[in-house]
Amino acid sequence: MNFRQSLAAAWQKNNSLLCVGLDPDPAKFPAHLQGRDDAIFEFCKSIVDATADLVCSFKPQIAYFAARRAEDQLEALIAHIHERHPGIPVVLDSKRGDIGSTAEQYAVEAFERFGADAVTINPYMGRDSVEPYLAYPDKGVILLCRTSNPGGSDLQFLEIGNSGGEKLFERVARLVATEWNTTGQCALVVGATFPAEIARVRELTGDLPLLVPGIGAQGGDIEATVKAGRTADGTGLMINSSRAILYAGKGEDFAAAARRVALETRDAINRYR
């Protein structure tokens, strides 16, 4: 199955719109993992195994691995997800954005080296910077649109000249949903901290999948997020939670604590579908 098909299947099989973000910070790991060479892999693997039946996707953030020279553990983690939990798509959160031949290498990195099912990228440099990722039609290409951070408004909310008031994030949504999504593999990132913009992006893009960070530690409202972004069949969303789930527990039972919070979050999301 391609990314869109796998995502749709996971929405149904696990009755879930929850995406668990994997942002491993060794300083927050339980004591029994401290100092281990494979601590990042073991921590993330335990979280994955405890929550895989509750999610529609996993989203490892590459910086948390690369900063600690743990790219090999990221490769092993994605391979583990595919082997032990087939059908759960993995989104590599790398937010790459560059031109031509460099973008081609970033696509190789995401899809061939790490084996991710989808990747997040920055559309600021235009369509030709996106096309190398579209050359992998079975993979997902998730473009930043209206991000959850306060500074996103510095550019994304600006009105485009001679456009009748169209804002930059609206132009991105419209371009991605129409001109760029020629193979049907595109999705968008829209932050949970801006439910009105989620609703606007949904209006502009039809059933395009939306990756929605910002609930949990960032304070996004679950009810507002789901009501603004769900499609007619109650899907269409990957609602990401990272820190609130990963660090729900501090002891050797950290994975069980993560499962408990993941279950609570999934069920809270489902109440508004």
UniProtKB/TrEMBL annotation:
Pfam families referenced in this protein's UniProt entry, alphabetically: OMPdecase
Key word Nucleus present: no
Enzymatic reactions: orotidine 5'-phosphate + H(+) = UMP + CO2
Family classification: Belongs to the OMP decarboxylase family. Type 2 subfamily.
Protein name, UniProt field: Orotidine 5'-phosphate decarboxylase
SUPFAM superfamilies registered for this protein in UniProt: Ribulose-phoshate binding barrel (SSF51366)
Orotidine 5'-phosphate decarboxylase domain boundaries: 17-258
Listed pathway(s): Pyrimidine metabolism; UMP biosynthesis via de novo pathway; UMP from orotate: step 2/2
Enzyme Commission identifier(s): 4.1.1.23
Broad EC category: lyase
HAMAP family: OMPdecase_type2 (MF_01215)
Keyword Lyase: yes
UniProtKB keywords: Decarboxylase, Lyase, Pyrimidine biosynthesis
InterPro entries named in the record: Aldolase_TIM, OMPdecase_AS, OMPdecase_type-2, OMPdeCOase_dom, RibuloseP-bd_barrel
Active site: 95 (proton donor)
Gene: pyrF
